[in-house]
Amino acid sequence: MVSGLVSVIIPTYKRPNMLGRAIDSVLEQSYSNIEVIVVDDNSDGDKYR
Q: Which residues are in the Glycosyltransferase 2-like domain (predicted)?
């Protein structure tokens, strides 16, 4: 059986610590066919990358 792809979209703005936790949470799931899309809402320069 082929499992469908699940897309997880994580919007973020100047919250690098929370972003790391959110990504880790997605990657820890038992379902393996996942793509993670992070949308940065114009954080200041490279400080938060």
A: 7-45
